[in-house]
Structures are given as structure tokens and as C-alpha cells.
Write a structure and sequence with these properties.
The structure holds two protein chains of two kinds. Chain A is α/β, with parallel strands linked by helices. Chain A has helices at about 60-70, 90-95, 120-130, 135-145, 165-175, 195-210, 220-230, 245-250, 255-265, 270-275, 305-310, and strands spanning about 10-25, 30-45, 50-55, 75-80, 85, 100-105, 180-185, 215-220, 230-235, 240-245, 315-320, 320-325. Chain A has eleven helices and twelve strands. An eight-stranded mixed sheet of chain A has the order 6-7-8-3-9-10-12-11, sandwiched between helices. In chain A, strands 2-1-4-5 form a four-stranded antiparallel sheet. In chain A, strand 9 (about 230-235) and strand 10 form a beta hairpin. Chain B is of the alpha/beta class. Chain B is built from twelve helices and eleven strands. In chain B, a hairpin with a 2-residue loop joins strand 9 and strand 10 (about 225-235). Chain B starts with a strand and ends with a helix. Classes of the chains: A alpha/beta, B alpha/beta. Chains A and B meet through helix 5, helix 6, helix 7, helix 8 and helix 9 of A and helix 8, helix 9, helix 10 and helix 11 of B. Bound molecules: adenosine-5'-diphosphate (2 copies), iron/sulfur cluster (SF4) and magnesium ion (2 copies). One adenosine-5'-diphosphate binds next to strand 2 and helix 1 of chain A. One adenosine-5'-diphosphate binds near residues 35 and 60 of chain A.
Chain lengths: ~325, ~325
């Protein structure tokens, strides 16, 4: 978290939609519907800041992150990085532009080629973008390994030789090699044990200061997101339902879904646990191929009224910098 | 007498030690937690107690007394009879513990038939009641469905229904909510709490989540590298964490109830940095308080109601 006085918007996501066709038919494939994975999301991230995106699995977090990096084609809307419309870039320009935006994945092993040693893994993004000589690439790799807390001696080793935490450090090092402006971290610590999670979270914090990074952190763990983020957005079925500064959203959640999520997180304190009012949501997440009419949360919302089925709540500013999509004020 | 008393349990796969002298007990009608990070031996401990470890290549020693009878030395057939009726288990991944090609109803009635001799319409009716009790809507229709037709949360409910079908006195739940979203986790934890409260079933709750422990458990055992390093009532453990590993775990968790800029204090290194318990404290290579006595042979168990295995702890408590 930085304390820049001058704030500049680095990422601007406007009305983004990503719909996946559902195909059916054995002989002739037909599109029989769409999974509305991301269904009209707008958000901005200031340079040097961290935006945390939370929500349950299937709500569209990964798809949104991938669409920001153009790893997924948006169905509608646009993504701006600084003054470039990323969604309008084609072929060679897009390829070059990609060096400004990188991704850190949940499963670092799955994203690393098992037959490449650390030096090759780190040099690869530079090679692809034609950056530096071999010696220069090695110098950058050494520098980056040091930044993520791995000794240079690992250069000749292979991913499977590392523990989960070390692999995530490698994944982060690789994302850093091109010195990007934005890193999308998709569940960066959810595969790790708690003691290692804390190491990696602290590392992400340090690197942000050191490299002036802007993060979009995607996670289902609300405490992890609170710890890492300046601003937090809560997603439900492809849409944002609430967004505010991290402090505000946890102090005073305004959307029923956010309230339920927060009340469901078990806290490591028996007194808090014994005293808490848990909002137990009924049922499962509806299908994003066929979201409920009106407010998408209404089928599980304890406070839903008739109007909730009839009209979609508008995305409004309920308090200074605190946006919410609900017909009521809670 | 404790319902289940595990003493000096050791399990090795070939030369690899997975459980290295575990002691704990579960009292009648209580919820006892077994908590620790991945690889510390939680699942292997529970599989040993349930008699579900393969025989080939696996060495098990120690005792696990259930109402005084050592389960580890029971003949296989006796253990099979007890499984399901005396002790039952719920696993993390319901999909791999359910048979994908058999209807839900059939999987429940099978258990009812084997352990309670129920057949035909009586078994079917009981299966429907069980699904209803674990909060599955429209249970009659669900009986005819296959596991893949249910959501993760619903599948976990089915597994719990099967586990409680024969009113076991001990239910072992191995990370039953780890694969689930937080709102579904809340539903399942609520269900487990209601079931054990209503039936007086003892629950051995295995988890890596200290939040889950705080919400559900009466007693807690913290495992590290195949051994219990601290055990206490949940209240005592959170009020006075004593073993440096427990302290480190608590310092690693970002908390919603503390100021937002509260720094995390991770444990250094990883579980790969260990020494064997017979040579000293396995946690020593990662510990801030490590000193000479820590690596001077097997650390003793210190204390009774709130017990731990750190020779340095007394000085700072
Ligand atoms: N390539 C794809 N094709 C079809 N559906 C997809 C694809 N990727 C994701 N989805 C669907 O889109 C929805 C959102 O998925 P995802 O973005 O992965 O959610 P999250 O990351 O929040 O768990 C889910 O219903 C998922 O099944
Ligand atoms: N079938 C097996 N063969 C060999 N080693 C095993 C086997 N099952 C578990 N282990 C090892 O035993 C240790 C304890 O495993 P486990 O009880 O599954 O840990 P936990 O459930 O606490 O994550 C681990 O080091 C694991 O690698
Ligand atoms: S709009 Fe209605 S259904 Fe949606 S969250 Fe608000 S009260 Fe609940
Ligand atoms: Mg995802
Ligand atoms: Mg396990």
C-alpha cells in the first residue's frame, strides 16, 4: 500500500462483459445459451494501489482477471491501461503491450514448464519480448530472485524440487521479469499453508513498494483480501454488488451478500465465534447461464422483497466512495 | 474414561515416517480438534484409527482404544463391523468417496442394510429421512440422483447422512469444508454442530483452519510433523498459545477483527526444514526461540490440562 499524494488511474475497466457460448448438438453444434461469467463490471485501480476482488467460486473473478490481460476476449466493454485501450489492440501491438501486465496464478506448478530450470523459466518472458542479451537476462534473473527471497543457487534447479511457497516465489519472480506495471494475482496464496501464506503476502507487499506495482488481487478469502487491498470489490454472479475502501467495506458492509460473507468467515477466537450472529445463506449459487431476474442475489437474500425480483438494483454511491447494488439501505 | 484414547501412534510408509508418536483423546459427546498444516499427519492418523490404511508396506504401532478396546489390534472383520456403526468418517472430497455410478439413495440404503438390517421400503424411507435431516431439499427426488448431479455442498451433506446413518458414537470429519465456499462451509459447520448436539455424538474435527477450531471445538490438539505439540481446551489454547508453532500459526493469519494494518508474522522456512522428534524438537529449524536444550533429545510433554512440548516455553509464559 503506497501513500502517493498524486493519484493516477492506471487501470480502467468499463462495462466489461465476457460471455461464454454453451454449445450443444452432436453432429451440428449450436449455441444454446451463454454463461454470463462477467456481466457488466466497471472498476478502476490507481497506480501503486491494490484492488481486491472477492466472491465465491464461479462468480467470474478469474474470467475478469484474464479479460483484463486479454487472455479472454471481452464480449463487450473495454479495458484501459493508462491511455491505451487494451481491448482495441491487435496482434503485434498487443503482444508488445502484454509486457506491461502479468499474472500470478494459484497453482504455480501448473503455470511453470516442468522441463525448464529456473534460469530458463525466468529468461523466457524476456526472450519472447526480445529483451536483453543472455548475460543481461541472467543479471535480471539474479536480481529478481533476490527480490523474491530465493538464493541464486536455485538457478539450475527445476520446479518440482521446490516447496509450495518457493514455487509461488518463482511464479512471482517470473511475473516480475518484465518489470510490469500491473500484476493480476489470481488466488496467489490459496494453495499454500497458513504460515507460508503469510510469507507470500508480506512478499507481495514488499515488492509493491520496491517495484511500484499495481495489483489486482483475486481471492475467495476475505481476510487475505482485506490484508492486501486498498480497495475491495465484492462479486456475485458476474456483477459487482459492493465496492469501497478496504477499511470501510469490512467496518460497514452494506450489501446483504457482503454481510453474509463476512459473517461466515470463522475467526480464530472462541469468544468472537460464540458471540457472532451468523447469516446462513440458503441454497447454492444459481447458474450464471440463467441468472435470477432483478437482483441476482435475491434467491439467497434473507431480506429480499417483491421489488427485488422485478427490478435490478442500480449501482449507486451509498456513501462517499462506497458503492452498492441493492434496493435498500442496510 | 475417554471414548477414544490414542497413545504413541506411529505410522510409517516404508522408511517414511508419517505419524511419529501421536497422543490425544476424544471424550464422549465432545468436539475435539486435530489441527495442523498439510503433511503433518492428520489424515494418516484418522485413517489409522478407522483401520483404513493399506496393510502392505505400512507399519503401524501404538494403541487407539475405543471404550477400552484397542482398534489397532482388532481383526479386520471386527473393525469392518465397527466402522459405520461405532465410528464413521466424513472426508474432504465427497466426490471421490461416493460411487459415481450408483444412485444416492442406493448408497445410503446399502449402509442401512449392512449395519441396521433395514430393507426395501423401510430402508428407502429411512434414507429419505436422513437426507431431510442433513438439510437436503426435496429428498425423495434426490434419492434417485447421481453424485455428479449435486453441488459440492449437497454432496458433503449426503456423505454426512451416510456417516450418521447408524448413529455412530464417534464421527471423524477430515477437512469436511476445505473444498467448499465460505457460505456453504458455514452451512455444513452448522449442520455438524446441530447433529452432534442432538445425538451426543463425539466429533473428531480435522482441519487446518484455526477459525473452524475456534467455532466448533471444545478441545484442540495442534500437530506438527507427526506429533501433537500442544493440547488444551479451545478457550485456553487461544487465550494462552504456548508452543512457538501455535503462536506462529496464530501470527500468520490475517484477521478481520484486528486493525487493517496489523502486520503478519509468518513462520520462517517450510515444513521441509525438520529434524526427527527423537533428536529434538522438529520445529527447531523454524523456531525463533530455539536454543541448546531444543535439540538435545526428545522433548518431553509438559503440563496436563494444557500440555505442550516446548522446553523453552515455560520461560516466556
Ligand atoms: N472457458 C470457459 N468456457 C465456458 N465457461 C467458462 C469458461 N471459463 C469460465 N467459465 C464459467 O464462467 C463462470 C465464472 O468462472 P470463473 O471466472 O472461473 O469464476 P471464479 O474465478 O470466480 O471462480 C463459471 O460458471 C465458469 O464455469
Ligand atoms: N500412501 C502414502 N504413502 C507414502 N506417504 C504418505 C502416504 N500418505 C501420506 N503420506 C505422507 O505422510 C505424511 C502425513 O500425511 P497426511 O496425514 O495426509 O497429512 P495431512 O492430512 O496432515 O495433510 C505426509 O508427509 C505424506 O506425504
Ligand atoms: S436488492 Fe433485494 S434481494 Fe438484492 S440484496 Fe438487496 S434486498 Fe437482497
Ligand atoms: Mg478463479
Ligand atoms: Mg489431510
Amino acid at each position: 500500500m503506497s501513500t502517493d499524494i498524486e493519484q493516477r488511474t492506471l487501470l480502467d475497466v468499463k462495462d466489461l462483459e465476457v460471455h461464454f457460448p454453451i454449445r450443444s448438438g452432436v453432429v451440428v453444434e449450436r449455441t444454446v445459451g451463454h454463461v454470463r461469467a462477467v456481466d457488466g463490471v466497471s472498476l478502476t485501480i490507481d497506480a501503486g494501489r491494490t484492488y481486491g476482488l472477492v466472491g465465491e467460486s464461479g462468480c467470474g473473478k478469474t474470467t475478469l482477471g484474464r479479460a483484463v490481460l486479454r487472455l479472454e476476449e471481452p464480449t463487450a466493454g473495454s479495458v484501459w491501461l493508462d491511455s491505451t485501450d487494451v481491448t482495441a489492440l491487435r496482434s503485434e501491438r498487443l503482444r508488445r503491450f502484454r509486457s506491461k501486465m502479468q499474472m500470478v496464478f494459484q497453482d504455480p506448478l501448473g503455470s511453470l514448464n516442468p522441463r525448464h530450470n529456473v534460469e530458463m523459466l525466468l529468461a523466457e518472458p524476456l526472450k519472447v519480448h526480445g529483451v536483453g542479451s543472455k548475460a543481461e537476462r541472467r543479471r535480471l534473473a539474479t536480481e529478481t530472485l533476490d527480490a523474491v527471497g530465493l538464493p541464486v543457487s536455485v538457478m539450475e534447479r527445476y520446479p518440482h524440487e521446490f516447496s509450495g511457497g518457493q514455487r509461488q516465489r518463482l511464479g512471482i519472480a517470473r511475473a516480475l521479469m518484465l518489470r510490469p506495471d500491473l500484476i493480476v494475482c489470481d488466488e496467489p496464496v490459496s494453495a499454500l499453508d497458513v504460515s507460508i501464506q503469510a510469507q507470500v503476502m508480506n512478499l507481495l507487499d514488499e515488492l509493491q513498494g520496491e517495484f511500484g506495482l499495481t495489483y489486482l488481487v483475486i481471492a475467495h478469502d476475505l481476510a487475505v483480501v482485506r490484508h492486501l487491498s486498498d480497495r475491495v470489490g465484492v462479486m456475485y454472479l458476474g456483477k459487482l454488488v459492493e465496492e469501497a475502501d478496504s477499511e470501510a467495506i469490512y467496518e460497514r458492509p452494506r450489501h446483504p451478500y457482503t454481510k453474509a460473507l463476512l459473517s461466515a468467515v470463522p475467526q480464530p477466537d472462541p469468544d468472537i465465534e460464540a458471540g457472532r450472529e451468523r447469516i446462513i445463506l440458503k441454497g447454492d449459487l444459481p447458474s450464471p447461464a440463467n441468472p435470477p431476474s432483478g437482483c441476482r442475489f435475491r434467491t439467497r437474500c434473507p431480506w429480499a422483497q417483491d421489488v427485488c425480483a422485478e427490478e435490478a438494483p442500480v449501482w449507486r454511491e451509498a456513501a462517499d466512495g462506497h458503492k452498492v447494488a441493492c434496493h435498500f439501505d442496510f | 474414561m475417554a471414548l477414544l484414547e490414542v497413545e504413541d501412534l506411529r505410522v510409517a510408509f516404508g522408511d517414511t515416517t508419517a505419524v511419529d508418536g501421536v497422543d490425544f483423546h476424544v471424550d464422549q459427546g465432545r468436539v475435539t480438534g486435530l489441527v495442523g498444516e498439510s503433511g503433518c499427519g492428520k489424515s494418516v492418523t484418522s485413517l489409522a484409527v478407522m483401520g483404513l490404511l493399506p496393510r502392505r508396506g505400512v507399519t503401524v504401532s501404538g494403541t487407539a482404544r475405543f471404550e477400552g478396546v484397542d482398534l489397532l489390534s482388532l481383526p479386520r472383520a471386527d473393525m469392518r463391523r465397527r466402522r459405520g456403526s461405532d465410528l464413521a468418517m466424513v472426508f474432504q472430497d465427497p466426490l471421490s468417496s461416493l460411487n459415481p455410478v450408483v444412485q444416492i439413495g442406493r448408497q445410503i440404503t446399502e449402509v442401512l442394510e449392512r449395519h441396521r438390517g433395514l430393507r426395501g421400503e423401510a430402508a428407502r424411507k429411512e434414507a429419505e429421512d436422513l437426507l431431510d435431516r442433513v438439510g437436503i431439499p426435496d429428498p425423495r427426488r434426490r434419492l434417485g440422483e447421481y453424485p455428479h448431479q449435486l453441488s459440492g455442498g449437497m454432496r458433503q451433506r449426503v456423505l454426512i447422512a451416510i456417516a450418521v446413518a447408524c448413529a455412530p458414537r464417534l464421527l471423524i470429519a477430515d477437512e469436511p469444508t476445505t473444498a467448499l465456499d465460505v457460505t456453504i462451509q458455514a452451512q455444513i459447520l452448522e449442520l455438524l454442530k446441530d447433529l452432534v448436539d442432538a445425538e451426543g455424538t463425539a466429533l473428531l474435527m480435522i482441519t487446518h483452519d484455526l477459525g473452524v477450531v475456534a467455532g466448533l471445538c471444545d478441545e484442540v490438539n495442534v500437530l506438527y510433523s507427526g506429533r501433537v505439540v500442544e493440547s488444551a481446551s479451545a478457550r485456553d489454547l487461544f487465550a494462552r498459545p504456548t508452543h512457538p508453532y501455535t503462536v506462529g500459526l496464530l501470527g500468520s493469519i490475517p484477521r478481520l477483527d484486528l486493525p487493517i494494518d496489523e502486520p503478519l508474522e509468518p513462520i520462517r522456512g517450510s515444513i521441509a526444514d525438520v529434524i526427527r522428534w527423537k533428536d529434538g524438537c522438529a520445529f527447531a529449524p523454524r523456531c525463533d526461540r530455539v536454543a541448546e536444550p531444543c535439540v538435545d533429545g526428545e522433548p518431553p510433554l509438559i503440563g496436563t490440562a494444557h500440555a505442550h512440548r516446548c522446553v523453552m516455553a515455560e520461560e516466556t509464559v
